[in-house]
UniProtKB/TrEMBL annotation:
Main location: membrane
Record keywords: Cell membrane, G-protein coupled receptor, Membrane, Olfaction, Receptor, Sensory transduction, Transducer, Transmembrane, Transmembrane helix
Occurrences of domain G-protein coupled receptors family 1 profile (ranges): 41-288
Subcellular location: Cell membrane
Superkingdom assignment: Eukaryota
Membrane topology field: Multi-pass membrane protein
Family: Belongs to the G-protein coupled receptor 1 family.
Protein name: Olfactory receptor
GO cellular component, one term: plasma membrane
Membrane-traversing stretches: 25-49, 61-80, 100-121, 141-165, 206-226, 238-259, 271-290
PROSITE patterns membership: G_PROTEIN_RECEP_F1_1, G_PROTEIN_RECEP_F1_2
Gene Ontology MF annotations: G protein-coupled receptor activity; olfactory receptor activity
Length: 315
């Protein structure tokens, strides 16, 4: 354990997902594939939305482009460090690096939660008030909503960092995880952390739970409206809502489980952390493309365009 002269911890030891060297090599290969899927999948969605004029004018795909950007960045917060740690015995992270992970993890995570709530509102307007949809969800409002999501994420993440940075660390420095997060870090503080853990629950835990309930309530209204008022286009709308609900469940269930219970930790926390930081950013592109006819059509057009330009340049 490395300490400075005044006995303050200057770095943390990450215990990772496994202590077995053979298993770590196997996990390195698996998570390398996951990381490549995160990067390529989300980049593909961003490029497709930007290249297709029809998608770019649609509020839903405007939000989807931002969601893919957040997922791309979220995957880069923890996975590269984890991959490097799989190939070395000592898994060390500096105190400043730990704070940086906490900041960006919560900044991007909270921004994504707010953005998913905005996307639910977008689907509500599109389905329940279709005649005025484009008027209500104009480009200026879309920009303002996305900006508000980023601002909300920034405020949330700064609050999380402030909870940690004020704590004294002078004793144990082993974190039972593959990255730094508030629940594990505050348990290493050399003081009673009861108040800090309550603040963590009221910030991260309640934020996750409230957004989750708002989303479920929104989609319940949408599904009720689809059942009672519309018949034409119901299948497409149901498919879109199913995609959104799948993404919402993958993100919010792990967050509620991790952040809504202070004072205790379980071994299964690592599995939920993997879902939140790796699996969800990887699955989002697959969910939105495999179940979305507009995205698949736009990707085919993009592929034909690049194939045609390739052969034209060869000729």
């Amino acid at each position: 354990m490395k300490k400075s002269n005044d006995s303050k911890v200057t770095e943390f030891v990450l215990l990772g997902l496994s202590s077995s060297w053979e298993l770590q090599l196997f996990l390195f290969l698996i998570f390398s594939l996951f990381y490549m899927t995160v990067v390529l999948g989300n980049l593909l969605i961003m490029v497709t939305v930007q290249a297709d004029a029809h998608l770019l004018q649609s509020p839903m795909y405007y939000f989807l482009g931002h969601l893919s950007f957040i997922d791309l960045c979220l995957g880069c917060v923890t996975v590269p460090k984890m991959l490097r740690d799989f190939l070395q015995r000592g898994k060390i992270i500096s105190f400043s690096g730990c704070l940086a992970q906490i900041y960006f993890l919560h900044f991007l995570g909270a921004s994504e939660m707010f953005l998913l709530t905005v996307m639910a509102y977008d689907r509500y307007v599109a389905i329940c008030n279709p005649l005025h949809y484009l008027t209500l969800m104009n480009r200026q409002l879309c920009f303002q909503l996305v900006f508000a999501c980023w601002c909300g994420g920034f405020i949330h993440s700064i609050t999380q960092v402030m909870l940690v940075i004020q704590l004294p660390f002078c004793g144990p420095n082993e974190l039972d995880n593959f990255y730094c997060d508030v629940p594990q870090v505050i348990k290493l503080a050399c003081m009673d952390t009861y108040v800090v853990e309550v603040l963590m629950v009221s910030n991260s835990g309640l934020l996750s739970l409230i957004c989750f309930f708002v989303l479920l309530f929104s989609y319940a209204i949408i599904l009720t409206t689809l059942r009672t008022r519309f018949h034409q286009g119901r299948s497409k709308a149901l498919s879109t809502c199913a995609s959104h609900l799948t993404v919402v469940s993958l993100i919010f269930v792990p967050c509620v489980f991790i952040y809504l219970r202070p004072f205790c930790s379980f071994s299964v926390d690592k599995i939920f952390s993997v879902f939140y930081t790796v699996i969800t950013p990887m699955l989002n592109p697959l969910i939105y493309t495999l179940r979305n006819a507009d995205m698949k059509t736009a990707m085919k057009k993009l592929r034909k365009k690049y194939v045609a330009s390739f052969f034209h340049s060869k000729g």
